[in-house]
Amino acid sequence: MDTTLHESLTKHEQIIRYIQSLRTGSKISVRKIARDVGVSEGTAYRAIKEAEASGLVATKERIGTVRIEQKARNNIDKLTFAEVVNIVDGTVLGGAEGLQKSLGKFVIGAMELEAMVKYIDAGSLLIVGNRVRAHSIALELGAGILITGGFPASDEVKELADQLALPIISSSYDTFTVASLINRAIYDRLIKKKILLVEDIMVSGSHTSVLKGSNTVADWNALVEESGHSRFPVVDEWNRIIGMVTSKDVVGAAIGEKIEKVMTRNPITVTPRTSVASAAHMMVWEGIELLPVTDTGRKLAGVISRQDVLKGMQFIQKQPQIGETIEEIILSAFQEEREADGGIAFRGIITPQMTSSLGTVSEGVLTTLMSQAAFRAIKLIKKGDLVLDSMSAFFLKPLQIDNEIVIRPQVIELSRKFGKVDVEIHYRQALVAKAILTAQLIDQA
What is the pTM of this model? Predict the structure, then answer.
């Protein structure tokens, strides 16, 4: 019986090592792993599920299960290119191996090429139409590409994307619509990141120093010298947590004493989905410096230290707002004015970049203009970040290039958590668009 269990464990470890050896973005197939490692499909399936729980692989809609990198702490609220594909109902034209990379910012390609390159750097996403030269330059600068309007990419650009592992995504939506969709997704992350989870900050099991019950105090001493730490999880042969051992536990113990004799049994653990706030309370209340993180089978997935928790909670306050580029571009052409009744208005000209293929202004642009004007009106009364909660918009008359419009937001209701605003757009004193929206206020303090 022991031999059978040992063989099963060995096969399981082989699968995990096999998955770790794959390149980021590689597709994971139960059948292929079973064939390559020489195990049953059931064993391969269970190992893949455990790899998913530990963050080695992830299952993405329309893509399947793929090898991913462990999320860096500074990417807590960043989107991956794969997530962008789903957000914009896109199609991947090339560079699929780079889908799991995070994008740092997106750049709207509505400017001359020489000016555009100043804003593109590695990790960017260039949102642009059918501009082949811009496609190749963006890839050479380390950026992914989102082609709007449903346009294709050239074979040369696709080949370059595959070589550089930088995705080319095609979407049928217009530039401003896809930018707004991505923007909303980033704002959704802003809300979600308020609930920081243990999986966002933990040190994964593959990077965790551990001991087994059969190890000795001498082994503990050697691990202290090697790692610089003095607290370690103790696991059994199946990587299940059975105890914790610290310097207090080994004081006075003989050098050959087994760890299982001195360790603290049945330690408190958390799961990757536990909130960091709960973990922090637990660590302070119980006086714990290192907390094991386990999966549903009580197998060690990683650890978090009190220092990790403190850094995570400090970092969450410093997350950059990378989702405001599109609003700044659209609203930058409009001048804020004070009205006679004390309210504010925004006056500006419809530019060619704001129009759709029909030559009239894009509804996505008008929606963004109205929502941003509403946000400005709320911020005059109450400070803080805002996220659009709901919006009902009506487009009464079409607008075209060079029309001068005036946007008038009026705050109807404002509470500690929500604001409601009525917004109207006028052209030559005539009402052309109107919206009622509510926004959620986020306190960043």
Answer: 0.38
